[in-house]
Amino acid sequence: MKILDRYILTSYLKTFISVLVILLMIFVLQAVWLYIKELAGKDLDVTVIAKFLIYVIPELMPLVLPLTILLTSIMVFGNFAENYEFAAMKSTGISLQRAMRSLGVFITLLAITTFFFSNNVIPWAKYNSYNLRKNIAKLKPAMVIAEGQFNEVGDQYNIKVAKKSGDRGQYLKEVIIHKKADNKRGNFTTIIAKNGELIGNEDSDVLRLILFDGYFYDDTPPKDYKDREKHPMAKSYFEKYTINVDLSNLNDIDLDQKNISDKYDMLNIQDLNYTIDTLKTAQTKERKEYANNLYNRTSMPVINTGIDVKKTDSTFNGDILSIFNNKQKVQLIDLAQNTFKSTKQIVTSKEKNLKSKQIWLNKHIIALHEKLALGFACIILFFVGAPLGALIRKGGLGLPMVIAILLFLTYHFIGIFAKESSETGSINPALSPWVSTLIMLPLSIYLTKRATEDRGLFEFDHLIEPVKKLLNIKNKDDDSERRELPDAVAEIIADEDHTAPKLSTNKHPEVLKLKADYFVYAKFSLVFWICSAVFIPLYFILKNNKLPEIAFICIQLGIVTWAIYLVYYVVAYTKLVKLYKLLPSTYALSKHVLLLILGIVLYPITYLLRKNKLNSDTSDSLK
Hints:
This protein is an alpha+beta fold and 623 residues long. The protein has helices spanning 3-34, 36-39, 46-82, 85-91, 96-137, 141-144, 225-228, 248-251, 269-297, 326-392, 399-423, 432-452, 461-470, 476-484, 487-496, 508-544, 548-582, 593-601, 603-621, and strands at residues 151-153, 157-165, 171-180, 187-199, 206-218, 234-246. It has a six-stranded antiparallel sheet with strand order 1-2-3-4-5-6. β1 (151-153) and β2 (157-165) form a beta hairpin. α1 (3-34) packs across α3 (46-82), α10 runs parallel beside α12 (432-452) and α16 (508-544) runs antiparallel to α17.
């Protein structure tokens, strides 16, 4: 390995390891905060918490690793460009691709390692993490009672509370309890109380729930079916009611027990292929059985049973119902309606069932391709970050951090939207894990090409120059080049260009005042344009997210700010017209209708162009 390759690889690895550790700490803290409700108050020892963290870290790698590669690439190559190390390399004939060669080999090996990691380690971590959290949640059901939702406590009770208070959350308000029947399916006993209190002891296997000021409802169906037709129900009022919940079986939990292993994210590629093939076979079989069932419901297979078929065929062109009498017609129509209703119900329920099974199958396909796409994503993001760092010429944690986070959020959210769409079948599930990577691929090619050619990140000269010519805006480079020429040559060029006429001295104060007034009104116009550009799109975003009240406020503010902007725009444009009337006729203000309309809609661009042109024209005429 050459000295240059060793230096670049060492610099990259130092930054890579540092960024990886920092991001892992941030994401681990976020994961702990996410699962804090499951961990708090369980009296877990250090070993269990360490196991939980060990299982969580591999789950975070699909997020942490691409962001680490992107951020490290921007930081390292930005630092090289900022310290003119790339300039030194190029002076010796070393191109950007040559400088990236050793890192390209490292990233390729890392991508291969990432594939094996995602195929073996991540499923193992998810399997152990899920089972550990499931067992932890059973340790103290009293801590599992969450506000605003039903929580299963013990084997017989589902409890919902509106609010918890107290230092241990022992005081409850608006308690609703459904008690399960011993030998029957369903919840026939309901208890409602205004207040309640949980009383328990760490050494006791009994949890006492004391309820105050409530009602007891019992609609358990009698054994006699005739009595069930009377719909009996018992209702009683109580001031104080005590429920003892036996937790002896629940607290005897083995945290190392692992009894759930069939989730799609706990499987490797071999298991996923087998499961996907099994699900597809079962789905095909179920669809065939469903089609045969619908066909048999039409009575077509037995419609001619008991009918002697004549040797000669005959054709009947009349109304089929005219063959039957009125009683038979009513029976046929009634039979057809009942058959249609029942078939419709079967189709609706079966459609939901098939849709849920298709979503389950799609999740397995997505999980399979996510393992393959992760390694390629690392390579693509490296070829996005490395040339981007060389182009922006900034190292450290400032601008590179902002750019890396914006790019990664774009990459991540595209992946999330594609995954959500593919689960429902809107996008092919095999394609969704690759969408964000495929979108980043053209960007990586573009950035690598720009950095190799040592060109800027963006070039808009082919768009700006025609506008400048139309608005008579001069390039500052032309004036600077002219000032650098010898005086004699500059005078000749000035004579050939017919030096611009000067403004009379007595008009200077009026021109300066109009210029100052224009910029005041123009700045106000810019502020209100930005406000309207924020509020109006917010209206559609909030409306689509089912927040009509806030959306209505935003559209009102948007209309008001847009109206104020138009007023300031008209006043500023009037000041500008008056100003140019005072200037010599050489300096003209473009009044093209199309440009005026575009200027109103795209005001920030108009503001910058007019600002440059006005400063240039007034400085030339006031010399």
